[in-house]
Amino acid sequence: MHLDHKKIVEKYKSYNIVVDEAKIKKAIEFAVKYHSIQQRESGAPYYSHPLEVAEIIAEMRLDTDSIVTAILHDTIEDTDLTLEEIEQNFGKDVAKLVDGVTKLTKIKFHEDNARQAENFRKLLIALSDDIRVLLIKLADRLHNMRTIDFINNREKKKKIALETLELYAPLAERIGMQQIKTELQDICFGILNPDIRESIVLRFKTIERESGQDKLIPQIIDELQKTLGGQGLKAEVSGRRKTPYSTWMKMKQKNISIEQLSDIIAFRIVVDNVENCYRALGIIHTSYKMIPDNFQDFISTPKNNGYQSLHTVIIGPLLQKVEIQIRTYKMHDIAELGVAAHWRYKQGQDESVDTTQYVWIRELLSILEQNNDPETFLQNTKLAMYYDQVFCFTPKGKLIALPKGATTVDFAYMVHSDIGNKCVGAKVNGKIAPLKTQLVNGDQVEIITSKHSTVSLSWEKFVVTGKAKGEIQKVIQKQLKGQHIKLGKTIISKVLKANKIEEENKAIKAACKFFSKTPDELFFAVGEGTITREEVVKLVIPKKSRLSSTLSLLKFAKKSSFRSEDENVIPIKGLIPGMAMHYAKCCHPLPGDKIVGIVHTGSGITIHTSDCEMLNNFASMPEKILDLTWDNNKSNIPFISRIKVLLLNEPESLATLAGEIAKNGGNITNFKILSRNSNYFELIFDIEVKSLAHIEVIINALRIKEAIQYADRDKN
User: Which of 636, 641, 642, 567 is nearest to 604 (CA)?
Assistant: First the structure.
């Protein structure tokens, strides 16, 4: 490999007048020296990797120290070079950045959920110090993903891809690194769902061939250019097709086929100033028909990551429905490079980027403080990273940015946690509205509070922000703790009475001493199920009485023979130990669904999805409803899910459907034809799957197929 530092330096010089060429050259010499005997899985010398990362950093337009850090980012972990030596040769700033990137590299996410969550806490805390650490880490991850095909272990590749898709891609999006986010998502999509990606690409080609879309894009660009130029407006117009991954996500969100998507192709108009952005918008809207409810102004109300553009959808040239983005050149830089673009516009100022301007980081750190449970924290932070925004106002005119789909309760918690906890009602644009009302851009929201109000468990079902979910869970946990204590106390009392233990207090005291717990802690543990009644029985009841105790327990719990031998196979948290458990056939709950349990005297607990219509029958009996969650660390037993399909009445359509289910790991156990005519079959299928995510993969794979007009879960 030709080790010429000038390639990196020239990239850097293209946007920065001052460059420490000697420092970069020296860093490359260090990388070559200390990585000399190491090789990548491709067989290339290891030092090729940090040099490629440095080129990506140069493209981000960061400072010299960031480029040097990229070149040296693996030396501390993988070589004999010390942090002290880096500081002596390259300065304190580089040493600090290398140390930060090294600490992030040590954070391994593809582990169990609890450890993954704890590691993500560490990552966020690291970001709060210097966001350049994340930028270098993203560049490192991007190059590793570009070369991931050299890894032969399929499972290892999938773990890395999943980690990248769930954490690094959304992190890139939240700091505005659109290019990196898009590339990471597409690479991961090809690894995790290669068949689906290939199907989408093939459908794109078919649509292009049938509609002439490949020739359409340059034609529309030319027409838009002429329209704007005819009004004396100088603008740069470009067009592109949406990526397979973004197309797939929109298909999932909207539950539609590729053909029904209106924005497969998008066009960008770039002008020299803000005034001309609105002028371009006026020309476009007066020249072509605008599609109502599709206009968004992110210039006057930027996204949290600094993104600014005007978005609109029109019936454009050649009568095609197209999406158009209008922005300035500076906005375009920030849209593509996010926080990294700020370096270009801060020349002559302090080069550090103030991470406090990123509200989302503060929000995530706030969630961190609210959640002691690492898994809950991880889930809520993922929610906080993935969202499109709506902008609403308080009665005093304060702007509140919320995720798309947010409700009045989300709004209340975003204003203040106490406002959310005391929320009893809301006014939207001066009118009383239900708490689960989804807000839209421009809504003015007034929250009605009461000091006597209590948080409702039902709120968790419709709120979408991580902050609201975290606060609600915090309050609910306190409420549940009291319920668990009450239940545990009742269980122990009944067991002792059934075995004629008269000195109840003495027995409880002995149990507390053995488990090193206070009485309330003991009751809570028994009520929650972390200490079983059998353990308490063994401790306080003589051996000769244990048989009668066991019989009493069986009677008390109304236990059936179902799962009597091994409760550990039950992948659900929150069940009453010893009680029989069944999955409802009305809604077919899957791991990943929000679930509740209904206690039936004599037959045990039936598990339903939280949106099952059957729960309406128990609205007046809240004492029979248990709040449950899936335990991801337990069973891998298959679950039955039911899907409804509308299939073209053509030869091999059914075979295509069955083949696609099998290809994606599903096993058909039963099916029924609901109706049939000359054009379509309507069928329902019972399929063995592993989880909610698994059935969603199958459904989305089916939706791509031309022979399948409709596919979705059936919960009736």
Answer: 567
In a domain, 579, yes or no: no
d(CA 175, CA 222): 33
Indicate which CATH number applies to the domain containing 216: 3.30.460.10
Q: Residue 91, Cα to own-chain centre: how many angstroms?
A: 38
Say if residue 215's pLDDT is above 80: no
Last residue of a domain, one of 502, 534, 557: 557
| Total domains present in the chain | 4
Do the Cβ atoms of 671 and 686 come closer than 8 Å? yes
pLDDT of residue 347: 39
E-assigned strand segments in 507-616: 572-573, 581-583, 595-600, 604-609
Alpha carbon 406 to chain centroid distance? Answer: 16
Residue 394 lies in a domain: no
Q: Which domain range does residue 476 map to?
A: 465-557
Distance CA 130, CA 111 (A): 26
3-state secondary structure of 677: coil
Q: pLDDT per residue over 272-296, tens digit each?
A: 999 999 999 999 999 998 888 788 8
Mean of the per-residue pLDDT values of the chain? 78
- Pair (14, 133) in one structural domain: yes
Judged on CB neighbours under 10 Å (0-12, 13-18, 19+), 304 is: middle
| Residue of 41, 64, 62 whose CA lies nearest to 143 | 41
Do 213 and 283 reside in the same domain of the chain? Answer: yes
One domain, residues 22 and 169: yes
Q: How many distinct helices (H) and strands (E) make up the chain?
A: 28, 20
What letter would DSSP give residue 438? B
Is there a contact between 252 and 696 (Cβ–Cβ < 8 Å)? yes
The answer on 321 and 221 residing in a single domain is yes
Query: How would residue 687 be classed by pLDDT, with cut points 50, 70 and 90?
Result: very high
Residues that are catalytic: 77-78
- Residue 163 covered by a domain: yes
233 dihedral zone (left: phi>0; alpha: psi -120 to 50; beta): beta
User: What confidence tens digit (pLDDT) does each residue in 222-251 have?
Assistant: 999 999 999 999 999 998 877 888 888 877
Let me know if residue 592 belongs to a domain.
no
Least confident interval from 209-213, 315-319, 419-423, 695-699: 209-213
Give me 153's structure tokens: 């272990």
Token digits of residue 586: 């009305």
Per-residue pLDDT, averaged over 50-63, amounts to 86
Residue 637: strand, helix, or coil: coil
Between CA 141 and CA 609 the distance in angstroms is 38
